[in-house]
Amino acid sequence: MPKNTQQAGKPISPSSEEVLARLEQLAKSIYDQIQSGKPPYLDIPVRTLANTIWDKKRKLLVLGPKTAKREFFDIGESKRFMQTILMLSLIVRARRENDYPTIRDLYYTGKHTIYYVNEYGKKVSEETWDDQRESNAVIQDIEVATGLLREHMGIMHDAKGRIVGNMIIRSKGTEIDLSRMGSGAWGIPSNVDQLEITKVEADYVLVVEKGAIFERLNEEEFWKKNKCILVTGKGQPDRSTRRMVRRLWEEFDLPVYILTDADSYGYYIYSVYRSGSISLSYESERLATPEARFLGVSTSDIERYKIPKNYIIKATERDIKRAKELMNYPWFKESKRWMEELQLFIERGEKIEIEALSGHGFKFLSNVYIPEKIANKEWII
Amino acid sequence: MSEKYRGLSPAEFFHRNKEIAGFSNPSRALYQTVRELVENSLDATETHGILPYIDVEVQLHEDRPEWVTLRVADNGIGIPVHEIPNVFGRVFYGSKYVVRQTRGVFGLGVKMAVLYAQMTTGKPIYVKSSTRDSDVVGEYLLYIDISRNIPHVQKMRIKKKNKNWHGTIVRLTLEGAWLQSKKRIEDYIRRTALISPYATIRYRSPDGELLFERVSKELPEPPQIGKYHPKGVDIEILKDLIRRSNNNDMTLAGFLEKYFEGVGEKIAQEFLTWAGFQPDTKVKELKLADLEKLATAMKNFPKWRRPRPLTLSPLGPELLKKGVKSILKPEFATAVIRPPSSYGGHAFIVEAAIAYGGEIPPQDNVLLLRFANKMPLLYDEGVDVSRKIVDSIDWSIYKIKFPAPVAVVTHVCSTKIPFKGVGKEAIADVPELEHELEIAIRDVARRLRIYLSKLEKMYEVKRKEVTIRKYMGEVSSSLAYVLNMDPSSISSLLEELLKKELEKKEVTVNA
């Protein structure tokens, strides 16, 4: 089992002094180059597919060793260099002022117009960045260049993950009992690493793709009856949801089950929880849950659970194309069960949603499907 | 200098040959008349070492707008007072019947203009002229007596010269379509100014005044009067030369040595042996059949020396470039002259120039300006050898991407320009000429490519400077904030680094 030496449940964020020091060090290294008469550059690990390595043993996508020099005096990279340094100063300012901006805040704070005269003598202007993809990209650059994650740097995002179950969390000095949320649930904050998980009493973690299913299971107190922690990322999970799932698996040894729709989009969501995305492979070590088990709903469930015809939807061409792409992902490729399942999806060209199980009654999902699948070890990995 | 020619009625000749001479319609006729007079003026000046000053004026008749009065004045050598009637009033009379590069070949054009004017408006031609060494000025109003081919003087006045003026002023009124021809005429004047950058040309018309002041005081070497090259003869020339020799004892060998270029005793002997003639045959005794055989043999003998180019007067690359620059106003121009060459016994020299940018409008094709013996060729571009060459070139290898502001100028100088057809506006694709033209055009195109790549590099450096400087403020202030420093101390360091970076890439471009 991949276990970390970290004491389970303790916050694992680097101290804010250390974060600030590492950010300042990056700026200092640039200044040192300039002062010694060298054209300044940044050394940034390459974040492309070509520099991603599938770590078979750990079942993780990790960043390869390739780095790229981003030179200020190279006109192809000059702007990105400027953006990186600009973003660095914005983050440093937030840290110094103890501010917690979102990635969108940073985009707006750093966006302004540069006026200049071009090489043909014409007065023109340019924005420091045109859209948020550009500012997000340099945040990722700073993450890989400093080895700090944006959560460590106090950068927030619009966190949407929710969690409920028999566990206690300490956040900003307050203890929160996640079993006492009534009909509600606790919103997972941006920086999960600053949380202390003081108590977990559960046999497993159940992650459901959809917010509506999460609501229903919570309303039924599924987690209490089945002694589990219930989590949802509401579709494509954000980093904090994935981090929370990972911590529960890593620090508390809980098996993780994922419940999604039976289509290529649902399978991809499972894949993100399990192994991470290619563009963010540098975060996988911290965010991925390589042993996450896919509970369902699967294409083969259509037969096994005799799903009524009116719940079966025809897959679109895009669904099929996506499924074919998934068959090339290394973690799917080395799983015989997954290859069969994806192949079946492509052959049948049919998909079903979790709600299709309601064809056997509203409680079928909670009373039969989930407990049976877990008890019979009918998950896919 | 006067030679008698066969008595063909000029009126008859004119009617038969209106198209050939370029008087096919009132629009073409006006253009052609301008041409004839301007070219005569240039020949009367530059050929004799005078920096030309030419004044052209077009006026419309007040009551009859189809009547156009054209006045051309020059500061040329002038015409001796007693010769004026014959020069303007008698067809086939003139000083151009020699082997030398001149604009008009037969000296016929101006008389055609006089005839045309006379026939369409019934007005006499006005001529005023004085030579350099004369102390009188002659003024004439004259007609051509069409049936007798002699000038008919209506009025004549000879005055004592009070100023040291010399030159010729010609004024005539003809039926001309000014509106239809004005663009051509202006084009013609403009291009004439290009190919004669040592001339000042003033052009006044109902549309206003254009003044092309000379940009050079340097005249090209005037062409020398030369002998015929043996390859370039025909029976008529042989007959004419024999008649002119006026020597009953002249032998064939002596005749060849005396009247032909590059023919010495040795070559004359060798040729005559090769051709099967007795060197001591008297030329006066040669029969027509002998002359025919002689002419053919002279054309085919492979060992003649190449014709010498002394009879030619190209502009030279410096002058051509000046002309191109002053008229086209490009950002870059270059010109080249090829070594003399020949085709069929006729010497020729090719010059070419290329111009780029500036006031040249970008076009989908190369703008081509053709010249032959310093005359602009405006019509029939599509069938001209220069157009053929320009169109066959892949300009992308010279870094030209159309639409591009690029103009090619070609100038062919020859004792006999191989015109295509009778219009004298297009040069035929004689292989020797085509070869030289292509080399010349490609040569200037290569130089343009060098210029363009330097320019490209210069812009690249400039772009780099602009780009770095654009972001420098942001980088300096951001770094300064993080490191608690003064932004100006960082930006001055960056500024120094930038300077060093740019020095590495410094490029200078000379247009």
UniProtKB/TrEMBL annotation, chain A:
<dbReference type="GO" id="GO:0006265">
    <property type="term" value="P:DNA topological change"/>
</dbReference>
<dbReference type="GO" id="GO:0005524">
    <property type="term" value="F:ATP binding"/>
</dbReference>
<feature type="domain" description="Spo11/DNA topoisomerase VI subunit A N-terminal">
    <location>
        <begin position="79"/>
        <end position="155"/>
    </location>
</feature>
<dbReference type="GO" id="GO:0003677">
    <property type="term" value="F:DNA binding"/>
</dbReference>
<feature type="binding site">
    <location>
        <position position="209"/>
    </location>
    <ligand>
        <name>Mg(2+)</name>
    </ligand>
</feature>
<dbReference type="InterPro" id="IPR013049">
    <property type="entry name" value="Spo11/TopoVI_A_N"/>
</dbReference>
<keyword id="KW-0460">Magnesium</keyword>
<feature type="binding site">
    <location>
        <position position="261"/>
    </location>
    <ligand>
        <name>Mg(2+)</name>
    </ligand>
</feature>
<dbReference type="Pfam" id="PF04406">
    <property type="entry name" value="TP6A_N"/>
</dbReference>
<dbReference type="Pfam" id="PF21180">
    <property type="entry name" value="TOP6A-Spo11_Toprim"/>
</dbReference>
<keyword id="KW-0547">Nucleotide-binding</keyword>
<keyword id="KW-0799">Topoisomerase</keyword>
<dbReference type="GO" id="GO:0005694">
    <property type="term" value="C:chromosome"/>
</dbReference>
<keyword id="KW-0067">ATP-binding</keyword>
<comment type="subunit">
    <text>Homodimer. Heterotetramer of two Top6A and two Top6B chains.</text>
</comment>
<dbReference type="GO" id="GO:0000287">
    <property type="term" value="F:magnesium ion binding"/>
</dbReference>
<keyword id="KW-0479">Metal-binding</keyword>
<dbReference type="Pfam" id="PF20768">
    <property type="entry name" value="Topo_VI_alpha"/>
</dbReference>
<feature type="domain" description="Topoisomerase 6 subunit A/Spo11 TOPRIM">
    <location>
        <begin position="204"/>
        <end position="374"/>
    </location>
</feature>
<protein>
    <recommendedName>
        <fullName>Type 2 DNA topoisomerase 6 subunit A</fullName>
        <ecNumber>5.6.2.2</ecNumber>
    </recommendedName>
</protein>
<dbReference type="GO" id="GO:0006260">
    <property type="term" value="P:DNA replication"/>
</dbReference>
<dbReference type="InterPro" id="IPR002815">
    <property type="entry name" value="Spo11/TopoVI_A"/>
</dbReference>
<dbReference type="GO" id="GO:0003918">
    <property type="term" value="F:DNA topoisomerase type II (double strand cut, ATP-hydrolyzing) activity"/>
</dbReference>
<feature type="active site" description="O-(5'-phospho-DNA)-tyrosine intermediate">
    <location>
        <position position="108"/>
    </location>
</feature>
<dbReference type="InterPro" id="IPR004085">
    <property type="entry name" value="TopoVI_A"/>
</dbReference>
<dbReference type="InterPro" id="IPR036388">
    <property type="entry name" value="WH-like_DNA-bd_sf"/>
</dbReference>
<dbReference type="InterPro" id="IPR049333">
    <property type="entry name" value="Topo_VI_alpha"/>
</dbReference>
<dbReference type="InterPro" id="IPR034136">
    <property type="entry name" value="TOPRIM_Topo6A/Spo11"/>
</dbReference>
<keyword id="KW-0413">Isomerase</keyword>
<comment type="function">
    <text>Relaxes both positive and negative superturns and exhibits a strong decatenase activity.</text>
</comment>
<comment type="similarity">
    <text>Belongs to the TOP6A family.</text>
</comment>
<feature type="domain" description="Type II DNA topoisomerase VI subunit A all-beta">
    <location>
        <begin position="161"/>
        <end position="199"/>
    </location>
</feature>
<dbReference type="InterPro" id="IPR036078">
    <property type="entry name" value="Spo11/TopoVI_A_sf"/>
</dbReference>
<keyword id="KW-0238">DNA-binding</keyword>
